[in-house]
Design a protein that fits this description.
The chain is α+β, with helices and mostly antiparallel strands. It is about 65% helix and about 10% strand. The chain contains 11 helices and 4 strands, in the order ααααβαβαααααβαβ. The protein has helices at about 5-10, 10-25, 25-35, 35-50, 65-80, 100-110, 110-145, 145-150, 155-175, 180-195, 205-220, and strands at about 60-65, 90, 195-200, 220-225.
């Protein structure tokens, strides 16, 4: 008796369809469930980790008119889930003296080791990305049949990849300087010199950042933050 050629496809067919639907999820369903933004946020987190060596990449500061309000705000911040004492600084007007600018910068940049890691990572990562971008430009011109590229293949690749790497190193240097955090430090210093008190927080994730800002604003602080 010959085997039925349709026997293998009659019953398993619905299971196959179910498996295919499971293996290849609907993009709209993922968006409705919030999976796509979560994946994008995870990718950005990995990218930031490749660039920056500090656990806290955001600096949030609140300026207060007196010590009592500042101490109360600092106490409230320490009640934030996951917030440690090392992440919160209370600064007095004495910290804003010109002779102690270096001390103020150190207090507002507690992760000195992480800063050096940021300098190294930012330069290496952006330099490599620049070199890759230059190589892609070379391959694009090569595929387009550029006579100049075809006549000097090796030198063209070295020049484009090299200029891309140099540009990437310049961008890495700019990122490692963190001009956004320098702005926060300068604003806090000016406030201290005017007799205000400051509470500086170093949140380690986006949720902590939003909670810190909400708490400081609730305590009527003049809030400034870095990216």
């Amino acid at each position: 008796m010959s085997a039925d050629p349709y026997k293998l496809t009659r019953q398993p067919l619905p299971d196959r369809i179910a498996k295919m639907a499971y293996v290849v999820p609907d993009t709209q369903v993922e968006m409705d469930l919030g999976l796509v933004p979560a994946r994008q946020e995870k990718r950005m987190k990995h990218f930031y980790e490749a660039l920056f060596g500090e656990r806290s990449r955001t600096k949030v500061a609140g300026l207060f008119s007196n010590r009592v309000e500042a101490e109360g705000a600092a106490f409230h911040l320490l009640q934030t889930p996951g917030m440690k004492h090392s992440q919160v600084r209370l600064l007095s007007p004495d910290e804003g003296r010109a002779a102690r600018n270096n001390d103020l910068a150190r207090q507002m940049e507690p992760e000195q080791h992480g800063i050096w890691l940021t300098i190294i990572r930012a330069h290496v990562t952006m330099g490599l990305l620049g070199a890759i971008a230059g190589t892609l430009l070379f391959l694009g011109l090569l595929a387009a049949g550029s006579p100049g590229v075809h006549s000097t293949l090796f030198m063209s690749w070295v020049a484009m990849a090299g200029f891309g790497a140099i540009f990437g190193l310049l961008v890495g240097g700019l990122l490692s300087m963190r001009p956004d955090q320098g702005r926060v430090i300068n604003l806090v210093r000016r406030g201290l010199q005017r007799g205000q008190w400051a509470v500086v927080a170093h949140p380690t994730n986006a949720d902590q950042t939003h909670q810190v800002i909400d708490m400081l604003e609730h305590d009527h602080a003049n809030v400034v933050r870095s990216f």
